[in-house]
Specification:
The protein has four helices and no strands. With 148 residues, it is mainly alpha-helical.
Length: 148
Amino acid sequence: MSYSERWQELFGPTDGGADRGGATMTLASTAPDPGSGGGQGKLKHSGGPWTSASGTSAELRTSTETSRAALGPGHEGMEAGAAGFASVAAVRSVLKSWEDRLAAVRDECDALEGALLTVAKEMGETEVAIEKSFRTAGGTGAKPGEKR
C-alpha cells in the first residue's frame, strides 16, 4: 500500500472534506481562524534550537581541546620523579589513550557544530518555502490569515 493510499485510509480524502460532512483537516499551527482551535495562522520553525546546539558543540570542542592540551604539561616531570617505577609506562599509556579520546571528541564536536548549523540554515530555508507555498496556494498572495 502506498503512503498516499495509507493516508487516505487513515484520514480520508483530501478533497476539502466533502466525504466527511464538509470537515477539513489542517495543521493546528496553520489554522486561519485563531478561534477555530488552531494556531495563529502561521507555521513557524525557529533555527534557535539548532543554532544553540551548534554553539554548545563549539563550546564543548573548545573545552575538550583545552583539557587535552593540558594533559601533556600536567605530566611533565613525572618520569624524572618516578624513575625506576614500572607504573611510568602505564601512566604514559593512559596519557596517550586520553589524548586520543579527547582528540576524537574534539573532532566530533567540530563536525557536529557544522552539521547543526547546516540544519538551522536548511530549516530556515524550508520555513521560507513553506510560507511562500501557503501564500500561493490560495492564489491571493496573502500570508495565511491575511485578507486581500
